[in-house]
Specification:
This protein is an alpha+beta fold. The protein folds into three domains: about 1-100, no CATH class; about 140-180, SH3 type barrels; about 185-275, Alpha-Beta Plaits (2-Layer Sandwich). About 55% of the residues lie in helices and about 15% in strands. It has eight helices and nine strands. The chain has helices at about 1-5, 10-55, 60-90, 95-100, 105-130, 200-215, 230-235, 255-275; strands spanning about 140, 145-150, 155-160, 165-170, 175-180, 185-195, 230, 235-240, 245-250. The strands form two sheets. Strands 4-3-2-1-5 form a five-stranded antiparallel beta sheet. Strands 6, 7, 8 and 9 form a four-stranded antiparallel beta sheet that branches. Helix 2 (about 10-55) packs antiparallel against helix 3 (about 60-90). The chain is elongated. The mean pLDDT is about 85.
Length: about 290
């Protein structure tokens, strides 16, 4: 191993001698790197705070794209600065990294330690960035993992699910991705009523609920289109115990779950007032008497 390192211009004794001679510039470069990394992270936090405060909430897409660009740019700057510091320190120690990086033996070791996966992650990360599959703060699903994108760089995507768990997904493993919050979303609610209920009456009450929701000061700004019953006020399903209507409402991204919950609440309250029954599964048991009269 020592012979291989010597062949690549690496001599441990020379490194020790060079460090003793140049320990001051080496230390300065190392400390400068740490300070620069700290300053960059502070600047990134400040920039994100400015973006959050200056860009209004009604321009969600612009805000998310700004967050994503800032995040990726910051990570690239950190990588370049770190590589530059490594090159400077290696020169001070008398190490020529060019033959080390291009040598077949060391290159084979690097590939063995996952360089192929790293390259795959970076290439896929570039496609994700340029094709804008998602932005920071989007809600995405990758395989069986779903959540809010907290961080994104060319190597890895970080999402946090509803339970607060953080998932680190290498970009090279992202083959099929679902974006649940791009430009707009649909709030979808299935509501079942008893077979005895008059469908026209149910539709009339639902229309009143829709009017109430779009005029609600708290939620009207989240709604892009008035809710409607899918199929031109038609019936979506005739199940074993209920007549089902499917309601859809076009909303701003990431707000579909809030609107779905509010629709269900308003439907329950209004149906109770109107005396419309929402059925629940029930089973009738019949016992046959097999005894014969004697």
């Amino acid at each position: 191993m020592n012979e291989n390192l010597v062949n690549f211009g690496i001599n441990s004794q020379n490194i020790v001698i060079n460090f003793k001679t140049n320990w001051i510039p080496v230390t300065i470069v190392f400390l400068s790197l740490l300070i620069l990394l700290l300053v960059i992270r502070i600047i990134l936090r400040k920039v994100k705070k400015v973006i959050d405060n200056k860009i209004p909430d009604n321009k969600t897409e612009i805000k998310k794209k700004s967050f994503t660009f800032t995040n990726v740019a910051g990570n690239l700057i950190i990588v370049f600065i770190t590589l530059a510091a490594i090159l400077i320190i290696s020169q001070q120690l008398g190490i020529n990294l060019i033959p080390v990086l291009t040598g077949a033996g060391i290159l084979g070791i690097v590939i063995g330690f996952g360089a192929q996966n790293l390259i795959k992650d970076i290439i896929n990360g570039m496609f994700i960035l340029f094709e804008q599959w998602f932005q920071v703060n989007d809600i995405i699903a990758v395989g069986d993992k779903a959540g809010v994108v907290e961080k994104f760089n060319l190597r890895v995507t970080v999402i946090r699910d509803l339970n607060g768990r953080v998932h680190y997904i290498p970009n090279g493993q992202i083959n099929i991705l679902s974006n649940l919050s791009q430009e707009w979303a649909n709030a979808v609610v299935d509501i079942g009523v008893h077979y005895k209920e008059n469908t026209d009456k149910v539709i009339k009450v639902l229309e009143e609920i829709f009017d109430d929701l779009v005029n609600d000061v708290k939620y009207k700004d989240l709604i892009l289109e008035r809710p409607k019953i899918l199929g031109d006020n038609g019936v979506d399903d005739l199940s074993n115990s209920s007549v089902t209507f499917k309601i859809i409402c076009k909303v701003k991204p990431s707000n579909q779950w809030t609107i779905e919950r509010q629709l269900r609440k308003k439907i329950k309250d209004k149906f109770d007032e109107a005396g419309i029954e929402i059925p629940y599964p029930s089973t009738n048991v019949y016992i046959k008497n097999t005894k014969q009269n004697t």
